[in-house]
Amino acid sequence: MPRAQIKDEKKYQRLREKGDSKEKAARIANASASQGSGKVGRKGGKSPAYDDWSKDELMKRAREIGIEGRSSMNKSELVKALRSH
Do residue 35 and residue 62 come from a single domain? Predict the structure, then answer.
């Protein structure tokens, strides 16, 4: 279901599948819709997808954003929880 605040829903979904947070995916999708993806692609740094993070890095990020039950999660569960947050 399309969200009114997301200007490029397809790009948003691709970014979420890649592991980007909801906020980052929305920012990129909206910026590329208004400025063009070529211009947006040249801006900023690049962060690896959650799949490329170590379990310790995922645990730290989950702790930062307050995901409960993280201590009993395996890596794939942490990735799923972070993506859905």
Answer: no
